[in-house]
Amino acid sequence: MVSMWTLYMATGEAVLTDLWMSRATLDIIGQVGFSYDFKALDSEHNEFVEAMHENLVELSTSLGEDPIGAILAKLFPTAKSQQSAARRKRTKALFTSVYEAVKSRGEPPADDQSIGANLMRIKNPSTGQPFPEEIVLANLTIMLIAGYDTTAATCMWALYDIARHPDVQKRIAQELAEAGLLQVPGQAQARQLEWADLAAFPYFNAVLKESMRLHTAAAVGTFRQCQKDVMLGGWHIPKGSTVWIPLHSVHNSIHNFTAPEVFDPERWLGGGPTGSKPTPAASNTVHLHAAATAAGPPVEENTTASGPTKPFATPHSQASVPPNKAMLPFSDGSRSCIGMNLAYVDVRTILLSILSKFWLELDPSVGSHAKVEAAQVIALVLSSGIPIKLRLKGHGS
């Protein structure tokens, strides 16, 4: 991908970061999770990525629509609804092709712990028999979508936030230069990114964390139905109630963060105008957990010997110190995102590879930040009419 972006830089053409990030993360989850090559980066256009982008935008913008309207659209289909149905059918066929490829390999070896292998070997605990094909296909589909879409959105928003703050970009470049990772025209080749680098670079990781706070990929959050009566923070939640945890609202609430609308990486380093204190540092142990937690505390750090830390902020909370529970890009607890570690590794690898070689600036077509904010849909993707573009130039320019 980086080499292909170099061609764009030479022509002065901007890149559409939403589609490029989706193509990169789709190839990663395809290979890592299913040993399947989507070849998404082999050409400028990829049917799966482009169809899924339109599907997700359509889904997000339709969440608040009148359900009666959806029924009428099925009874009296329009040209637009027919196009949507055809696109969804093509997308399902692509998911099915992945499933068939995984299934055709037969019984996976015991040491294969990929997502695809585990889906093939899992059994219904009630019967001891394999789940029906439609159940396995549905789970494969959600694993694929979750494995690439939210990661791509996180990368896109991080590039956007970095590009619109030149001082932030310069400081990241300095951090990379000190580590020998900055590729400067006319100078010796920079060293290759290594595993240990993913848990390094405090400022870069603070920038990433702040971008994830402002633009949480899973913005809608999660829903849970109470299985019993619960008293939480003085509130009685009856059994059967549906509880909504809207992550975007949690991350952008004045009850949890000082000046939440301000992009301020320093809030995670103990300085800056928002006056926030630092969050716990990541472990120095060189393994997946270390790389995955550098931008934030792992789940187990959200508890203490006396029980959970501050579970949520109330209107009377002190906003100057964001509690661990106020930063939940991957949710929390036993049902937190199972792909968190892989996502962090993907995001850091992609962003560091880009930032070590290019300066970024927003294409004039992007317009003001207010325009970009207005173009967001509920999943924090951008509608196809207003894509984000980044113009790349060599570090020496």
TrEMBL record:
Chain intervals for the UniProt region annotation (Disordered): 293-323
Matches recorded under SUPFAM superfamilies: Cytochrome P450
Binding sites annotated in the UniProt record for heme: C337
Pfam assignment, any one: p450
Classification via PROSITE patterns: CYTOCHROME_P450 (PS00086)
UniProt cross-references to InterPro entries, sorted A to Z: Cyt_P450 (IPR001128), Cyt_P450_CS (IPR017972), Cyt_P450_E_grp-I (IPR002401), Cyt_P450_sf (IPR036396), Cytochrome_P450_monoxygenase (IPR050121)
Family indicated by similarity: Belongs to the cytochrome P450 family.
Protein known as: Cytochrome P450
Lineage of origin: Eukaryota, Viridiplantae, Chlorophyta, core chlorophytes, Chlorophyceae
